[in-house]
Specification:
single chain, Rossmann fold, seven-stranded parallel beta sheet, two-stranded parallel ribbon, 10 helices, 9 strands, binds nicotinamide-adenine-dinucleotide
């Protein structure tokens, strides 16, 4: 019998792709979002609820009795709403969804965080202990979005402290490129992928990170399949194996972030600024897609 799964935020940029990928992989998928997408995918049960409503969310999840929950719903762009609204919304959704998943009987919960919790872009300057960044580097969020995602990770840890019957994972997807964006559709920030490559200052905002939405789906499916290998509450970066840049980051990082020049010497060739080793070592997952093979120029 196929595994019953709830994906929250299934109408969003990443969620639409994830929902389709899980249906293709044979899961029994319910998308829970405030909205139904303009082109709903076949074979998906779409439910609408405000995930900030803890009671309605709890009742819905209990009715659906999912085996696993993937939590993508959030305000996904820093400064796209007032800071207090972003913090309350994302932290509230993370808590409500995780609590509802546990009380609804789910055995696995995977929560979307973000690499932006690390602190790059902070107006006072941000200098991490090393590059590439790995999951042992301490996050230093500087905006409400980053803080809200840090809280979401802590929500996963909190529930992992309360029960060992359920596995919790947080993942930090790099700048998500939906499949149609390789051919020129606008990305989350409004410009195209090609603009991001041609104007390094655009990609520098995310430390040149990116990931194809289909690779995120593969990560999530692999994580669920190998959930027994994962320490409860673990965090993973989920990114492409290369940087979204036409030149090595050993050159681009010092140009865009002079204060990080001393950390960038090792970022030669196409190396990214975010390590994807942990997902490879623990789960056996690595991204298959690169801008070099996907971009339609
Ligand atoms: N897109 C990226 O590059 C990126 C990078 C890092 C992390 N993330 C994280 O991945 C997740 C998905 O991002 P996305 O780009 O698909 O975002 P998106 O804005 O396209 O989709 C978010 C979805 O959440 C839903 N939602 C928001 N508030 C809700 C509420 N109160 N109740 C019910 N549904 C609600 C929205 O309707 C929307 O469909 C988010 O958690 C985001 O923070 C995204």
């Amino acid at each position: 019998m196929s595994q019953r799964i709830i994906i929250t935020g299934g109408s969003g940029r990443l969620g639409r792709s994830v929902v389709e990928g899980f249906v293709e992989a044979g899961f029994d998928v319910t998308s829970v979002d405030r909205n139904v997408p303009p082109s709903p995918a076949k074979g998906v049960d779409y439910r609408t609820v405000d995930l900030l409503d803890a009671e309605a969310t709890g009742e819905l999840f209990t009715d659906l009795a999912p085996e696993a929950v993937i939590s993508l719903a959030a305000i996904a762009v820093p400064f796209s709403a007032p800071e207090d609204v972003i913090l309350k919304t994302n932290a509230g959704i993370a808590h409500n969804v995780t609590a509802a998943a546990v009380s609804g009987g789910a055995k696995a919960v995977i929560i979307a965080s973000s690499p932006s919790i690390m602190g790059y872009g902070a107006p006072t300057g941000w200098v991490p202990p090393r590059l590439p960044l790995d999951e042992d580097v301490k996050p230093e969020p500087w905006h409400a979005y980053g803080l809200s995602k840090y809280v979401a990770e802590q929500v996963a840890s909190l529930f992992a402290q309360q029960t060992s019957e359920v596995k919790f994972i947080s993942f930090r997807p790099c700048y998500v490129i939906a499949p149609e964006e390789w051919a020129g559709a606008p990305t989350q920030q409004g410009h195209t992928v090609k603009d991001r490559l041609d104007q390094p200052e655009l990609s520098a905002v995310a430390m040149f990170n990116y990931v194809d939405a289909r690779d995120v789906t593969d990560f999530l499916i692999t994580a669920l399949a190998n959930i027994d290998q994962v320490d409860n509450g673990a965090v993973f970066f989920v990114g492409a194996q290369d940087a979204l840049a036409r030149r090595p980051l050993a050159e681009l990082v010092p140009e865009q972030f002079p204060e990080l020049a001393h950390l960038a010497e090792g970022l030669t060739g196409d190396s990214p600024a975010f390590s994807v080793q942990k997902a490879k070592e623990v789960l056996g997952w690595e991204a298959k897609r690169s801008w070099r093979t996907e971009l339609v120029e």
